[in-house]
Design brief:
Chain B: InterPro entries: ACT-like_dom_sf, ACT_dom, UPF0237/GcvR_regulator. Chain B: It holds the Pfam family ACT_6. Chain B: This is Amino acid-binding protein. The complex is a heterodimer of chains A (about 170) and B (about 170). Chain A has three helices and five strands; from the N terminus they run H-E-E-H-E-E-E-H. Chain A is α+β, with helices and mostly antiparallel strands and about 170 residues long. Chain A has one domain: Peptide deformylase (Peptide Deformylase), CATH 3.90.45. A five-stranded antiparallel beta sheet of chain A has the order 1-2-3-4-5, with helices on both faces. In chain B, the strands form two sheets. In chain B, strands 2-3-1-4 form a four-stranded antiparallel beta sheet, covered by helices on one side. In chain B, strands 6-7-5-8 form a four-stranded antiparallel beta sheet, covered by helices on one side. In chain B, a hairpin with a 4-residue loop joins strand 6 and strand 7. The chains are: A alpha+beta (about 170), B alpha+beta (about 170). At the A-B interface, strand 3 and helix 3 of A face strand 5, strand 6, strand 7 and strand 9 of B. Strand 3 of chain A pairs parallel with strand 9 of chain B.
């Protein structure tokens, strides 16, 4: 196992769209091990996506136990993840290992259902909410080349401002 | 490099930010923290600038924009104090029928527990007959969020406003 080095913004490689994993072999398992170790070594230590270590495949790892204890799914290895359903919206402040020294408010779904493959290629489905759902959405964004910077919202939109809503035609 | 705090006020119209920042750019200034927003019918800018020449040349560079857009401008040299390290950990939201004393009541209660206001935005809205006041405060509560709840929730009754206290947790992923 090894701690891999993290790409940091403005590295253009962070904006590449990642490709689906096709081969579930020993090399993939070893990489997942390294990626997991890299995640735990990071400042947040609760999530990582393969593109952050310059491997442009659709692989996300989330483990929010450092934050929530056992009240979560524990270690989730999400390969080729798809968001199947979502509901609710919440504003939360996010930072990212790939964007040092900056945090910003981002709107995410409160509850999500994610379908993915595990390290052996087996289909898995997870329902996540709150902090765990936010972590999964943040990491899945990396697979499409998005950083939380792409989703920043103004502080003013934290509050419902009806008078700015457009009237429907 | 020296630092100054630049304040600009003018009747809101398109082009104020462009004119001011273009002038600063030509005067070799760089812009740091900035707040630019419309307040009432006025557009306001407050920003920290780094300037390499003297403040007089900054004023001179701004002069055409000031005249053309009828702006009021103020430049205060500031010593480069270190950026405060306390990050906001609490958000207080207040809304209710507008009446004098809401801000004083809420911020007085916050000051009493050592709460440092880092960002306060508020807005009077609603109709003339039913004015509504909305305020969002972000700041640092040294004794944690419970101390804030204890301090400001009693104002719901006293001021007749809705008060919410929420944690701000920056999650690093």
């Amino acid at each position: 196992m090894a701690v891999l080095s993290i790409l940091t913004y403005p590295d253009a490689r962070l904006q590449r769209k990642a490709e689906a994993v096709q081969v579930f072999d020993d090399e993939l398992q070893k990489f997942i091990g390294d990626l997991t170790e890299t995640m735990y070594a990071g400042p947040g230590g609760v999530g990582i996506a393969a593109p952050q270590v310059d491997r442009h495949q659709r692989i996300v790892i989330v483990d929010v136990r450092p934050k929530l204890g056992e009240d979560c799914h524990g270690l989730m290895v999400l390969i080729n993840p798809e968001l199947m359903a979502w509901e609710g919206m919440a504003v939360g402040r996010e930072g990212c290992m790939s964007v040092p020294d900056f945090t910003g408010n981002v709107i995410r779904a409160e509850r999500i259902q994610v379908q993915a493959q595990d390290v052996l290629g087996r289909e898995r489905s997870y329902e996540c909410e709150g902090f765990e759902a936010r972590a999964v959405q943040h990491e899945m964004d990396h697979l499409d080349g998005f950083l939380f910077l792409d989703r920043l919202v103004s502080r003013k939109t934290d509050l419902f401002r009806r008078k700015n809503y457009q009237k429907s035609q | 490099m020296s630092q100054a705090l630049l304040t600009v006020i003018g009747e809101d119209r398109p082009g104020i930010v462009a004119a001011v920042t273009q002038a600063l750019f030509t005067a070799d200034c760089s812009i740091g923290d900035a707040s630019m927003m419309r307040l009432g019918g006025y557009f306001t800018i407050m920003q920290v600038i780094d300037y390499s020449r003297d403040l007089g040349s900054v004023e001179m560079a701004l002069d055409p924009a000031i005249k053309r857009l009828n702006l009021r401008v103020h430049l205060d040299p500031i010593s480069s104090v270190a950026v405060a390290a306390d990050l906001p950990n609490t958000r207080v939201t207040v809304y209710g029928a507008d009446h004098p004393g809401i801000v004083a009541g809420v911020t007085g209660a916050l000051a009493a527990i050592g709460f440092n206001v880092i960002d306060l935005e508020s807005e009077s809205s609603g109709s003339a007959e039913r004015p509504l006041y909305v305020m969002v405060i972000q700041g640092y509560a040294p004794d944690g969020i419970e101390s804030v709840r204890k301090a400001v929730l009693p104002l719901r009754e006293k001021e007749g406003v809705e008060v919410g206290v929420h944690p701000i947790e920056a999650a690093v992923f």
